[in-house]
Each structure stands twice: as C-alpha cells, then as structure tokens.
Write a structure and sequence with these properties.
- This protein is of the alpha/beta class and 580 residues long.
- Helices cover 64% and strands 9% of the residues.
C-alpha cells in the first residue's frame, strides 16, 4: 500500500498525467528496442559465426546499430520531457509551500527556526526533485526492462532461469532488513543539516555582536560541533545505504557463477546451443543492473519519504488567519477603528492583551504607549489582521475584520514598521513595492512628501540605485523615508506606525517626522512609540501596562492627571510638554 507521504504527493502529479503518459510510451518503446539487442547475439553466434554466413553477419550488425541509435534517441527525448515535467511538478509543490508560509501568522515564525524552514524549502524539495527527476524515470525503464528480460530468460531456457533465481530470497531478506533502518538515518541527516543552516543564518545576522564580543573562536567551535554531528549522521546513513543497496546485489551476483557452470555443462552435452547460452548470459548480465537499481531505489525512496514528510509538516502548520466564505468587500472606508473587548494569549498562559477596548475616530491620531511587553506590537498585528484575537473583535467602520477579505484589510490599513524592510533591489522597486501600478506623478508626490527628492537627485544612478540587502547601503533615516514614501503611495485610510523613530537620533527624528506629518494628514493613525515627543503630538493617548489599558485621554489630560502616562516617561521629557 502506498505510503501517506507519497499519496499526498500524487495530488501534484495528477494534473500532468497526459505529459507523463507520453513519457511512459516513449520509455516503453526505447526499452522494447533495447530488449531485442541481447537476442541478436543468439543469431550472431549460431547463424552468422558458427554458420559462416557473412550476409547474416552484416545484417545483424546493421540491425544492432539502428536499434542502438533509435533507442538512444528515444531515451534522450523521454528523459528531457520527463525532466521538464518533474521540474514543473516540484515547482508546484515549492510554490504551495511558499504560499502556505505567506498565510502563517507571527505565532508560527516566533516558534520555528528560519534555518529549519529554509532547509525544508531548499534541501528537502531539492532531494525530492533529485529522486523524481533521476530515479523515477530510470525506475520505470528498469521495471520494464527487468520484466522483459525475465520473460526472455524463461523463453530461452526455463531450467537455466530457475537456477538463476536461487539467490533471490536471501537478497530480498537483506534488502528488507536494512531498508527499515534507513529512514531514521536519513531523518537524522536532514535534522543535523537544518541545525547547521539555522546556526549560519543566526550567527551571520548577528555577526556584529559575535565580533564585538570576541566570540569568534567560540562560535567557530559551535560550528564545528554541529558539523561533526552532521558528519556522524551522514556516515551512519551512508553505511546503511551501502548495505541496503549493495549487499542484495552482491548476493545476486553469485547466480552468475552458477549459470556459467550449469549452462556450460549443457552446451557440452549438446542440450542447448552456444548461441542460446550467450544470449541467456547477455540477458542475465542485463538483469543484474536493474535489480540492483531497484534495490537501491529503496534508499532513494527512503530519503524522498523523509523529505516529503518534512515538507508536509510545514504544509500542515495551522493557518490562524483565513478569509471566510462570508467575507465581503467594503464599499466605502471612513477609517473608524474599534477594538472591542480583545484578549490575545498566544498560548502563553498570561495574556498579551486582556479585555482591551479602544475606539479611534476617523482621522484621529492615537498614540499607544507603554513599557516593553505591554502588548503594543500585538495591537499592530491585530489591526493588520496578522493575528486574530482569542476573544473580542477588531472592527473597521463597524465591520469585523474577520468578515472583510484580507486583501481589502491590508489595502485600507498599512503598517510602517520599526525597521522597514527593503529588498536587495533598486530604490524604485522598493518604493513601488506595495503599489506597482502607481503613476510617475504619484511616485513624485510621495517622494516629495517623504523628503527624498534631494537625496535621490544626488544619487549617481537615481532611482536605479541598489539599496543592498535589507537596505544596508542606506542610513536608518533614509530607510524610514523610503517607508514613508511607500506608505504614501499605498494611500491607506488607516495608518499604523510601529516605533517609527526608535532607531533615529533626535536630529534625524525631526527631519523624518516632517514626512510622517504629511503622511498622517487626513488619515486615521495609530502611533506605537516609547518616545514622549511623538505621544504628546497625538490627539489622544492610550497607555498599556500588564496587557491592560490603564489610562487614556489627550496628552494634556494625562499630563495633568500625573498617572501612568507621566510615570512612563522621564521628568525631563514631560517638562517639554506644550502649554495649554
């Protein structure tokens, strides 16, 4: 019975059945021609060589050449077509995995190593593709060739055939014995490889800390330990692979010696011709390679099974946020946001937000402040519907966000993150990323509003300038300005700013805030910040502490109250509040 992993993989194969059928027919024709070649040796020996027939010799040689060329051509065509279709099938699987990852919430990525995800997308899918492209078609040819060769062996001489299969039972025993051990070894190799990938990603991202902490030698030792564990798992897997694939073939090769002995004695007795023995031996010698290949197939299938299992584990990861069948678009959005008795736990026991209720009027600027861990970032994820509340509702113009298509939610509500992400691409591609359809006039207006006009004019390549991976060729302030322009182009109704000036010095903050003020004008805005200067410019402030709203009101009201808002900031900062 087909393993569950392979049954699920068939769903990706079925759409390509017509193209695969053509490959099967071509492979069948190629194998049929190849099967006829050993039989020519019987006519060559008995009819041409021993019979002294020169015409027969030339005819047989010409037939052999034509069959060889035709078989080669069919093999090339079927092989190329199969490689293409298998690549398409595996891309569908990789694409399904990538799209599934796009749908997963921050809860998943908070608990899963990036290196492990990359290992499954790259290494495991690549291993499946290797088995699919290199092994499956060869297996098909081997099965057809093996069946045909066995049929020819029976037809040539039944008694010789029965002698040749004496060693089959012990070879099958060896195959079954070591196949069971192989899957565990393969999984161990995949896991140790993922450990190395995760280590490299993490330490390369944190290379500045590694170097400035004088931890280079320590990290190199940790790298060596992980590599040693990988090599140990790899050697164990290779040893079992050799035993599962090579030992059965080694046992089967003993039948060749028996056939030489028994078949030779029958030629001497005159019960079979020399040509029959030569043809039988030609088929027998061609039986062994496909048998060994099919036995080695178990090793390949074991690795593919493990890789399929690891890929399907990702595909089975629960999608927390989905569009419901009842979801419908918004005809008009004014920007009223309502957070109604919302509780979020993230399965951590203590809630990140606990029965939080906030009302934000259209066009209002709301500052959300509070100590670290109070739930500020969780609030931004709720507004973008990256997560859904465990209890309560988040509404836009009175509509529960769960009743609005995700595409609509993220068109009307846009996030500018604390550290805006930039792709390793041109400045223009990054600016247009959220709005590729934006006109040149819209782009120019967004660039002016963000204060980027002079900066871009000074660049030798202008908009074509490459920003580097993560935008590292730019300063923090320049990255923030690009994020402002990108959000401006998206033209949201609701703007969410998550610590927009956290990585900027006071001078750069003042410059960047000019762009933010232009972006916020006329839009409902939620500003998450730990800076008093930003909080006091808001229309209203909500103070979070211990997952609860502990205070809310205008900045002046909260200043006068002298409660949690005042205690949150330094006295020196609060003295800079504007006078009433």
């Amino acid at each position: 019975m087909l393993e569950p992993q392979f049954r699920r993989a068939l769903a990706y194969v079925v759409p390509y059945w017509r193209r695969l059928l053509l490959v099967f027919v071509l492979s069948l024709l190629s194998t049929g021609l190849a099967l006829y070649v050993p039989y020519l040796s019987r006519s060559l020996v008995d009819g041409a060589l021993l019979g002294g027939d020169g015409n027969a010799l030339r005819r047989i040689v010409l037939t052999f050449a034509l069959i060889t060329v035709a078989s080669f051509a069919l093999n090339v065509v079927s092989g190329l077509r199969y490689t293409r279709v298998s690549a398409d099938i595996l891309f569908d699987m990789r694409l399904a995995l990538y799209r599934h990852l796009q749908r997963l919430s921050p809860r998943f990525f908070a608990s899963t190593r990036l290196g492990d995800i990359m290992s499954r997308i790259n290494n495991d899918i690549s291993e499946i593709q290797r088995v699919a492209s290199e092994v499956v078609l060869a297996t098909l040819g081997n099965v057809i060739f093996l069946a045909g060769s066995l049929g020819m062996l029976v037809w040539l001489d039944l008694r010789l055939f029965l002698v040749s299969v004496l060693f089959l039972p012990p070879s099958l025993w060896a195959l079954v014995r070591y196949r069971r051990r192989l899957e565990g070894r393969v999984r161990a190799v995949r896991e140790r490889s993922a450990d190395i990938g995760s280590f490299l990603i993490e330490t390369i991202q944190g290379m500045k800390l590694v170097v400035t902490s004088n931890a280079q030698v320590r990290e190199a030792d940790r790298f060596r330990q992980r590599n040693d564990a990988f090599v140990e798992a790899l050697m164990s897997m290779q040893w079992v692979t050799y035993l599962s694939g090579g030992l059965p073939g080694l046992i089967l090769s003993g039948s060749t010696a028996i056939i030489f002995l028994y078949g030779g004695s029958r030629v001497i007795d005159g019960t079979i011709t020399m040509g029959t023995l030569v043809a039988f031996m030609a088929y027998q010698m061609r039986v062994l390679p496909p048998v060994q290949a099919l036995m080695g197939l178990y090793a390949s299938l074991a690795t593919a099974k493990v890789s399929l299992g690891r890929v399907q584990e990702l595909l089975d990861a629960n999608v927390d946020v989905i569009d419901t069948p009842e979801s419908a678009g918004l005809s008009r959005v004014d920007g009223r946001v309502t957070i109604e008795h919302v509780t979020v736990t993230f399965d951590r026991g203590a809630p990140l937000l606990n029965d939080v209720s906030i009302e934000i009027a259209p066009g209002e600027v709301l500052a959300v402040v509070g100590p670290s861990g109070s739930g500020k970032s969780t609030l931004t994820e709720l507004l973008l519907r990256l997560i859904d509340p465990d209890q309560g509702r988040v509404l836009l113009d009175g509509r529960d966000l769960r009743e609005v298509p995700l595409r609509e939610v993220r068109r009307h509500i846009v996030l500018v993150d604390q550290e805006p992400f930039l792709f390793h691409a041109s400045l223009l591609e990054n600016l247009r990323y959220a709005s590729p359809e934006a006109t040149d006039e819209d782009l120019a207006a967004a660039v002016r509003a963000a204060g980027l006009e002079a900066f871009i004019a000074e660049l030798p390549e202008g908009y074509a300038t490459q920003v580097g991976e993560g935008g590292r060729a730019l300063s923090a302030g320049e990255r923030q300005r690009i994020a402002i322009a990108r959000a401006f182009l998206a033209a949201p109704t609701v703007l969410v700013l998550d610590e927009p000036t956290a990585s900027l010095d006071p001078s750069m903050t003042r410059q960047v805030m000019t762009g933010y003020e232009a972006l916020m004008r006329g839009r409902t805005t939620v500003v998450v910040s730990h800076r008093f200067e930003l909080a006091r410019q808001a229309d209203r402030v909500v103070v979070l502490d211990g997952a609860n709203v502990v205070e809310q009101g205008t900045p002046l009201e909260l200043m006068a109250r002298g409660g949690a808002f005042v205690r949150l900031f330094d006295t020196s900062s609060t003295t800079n509040a504007p006078e009433s």
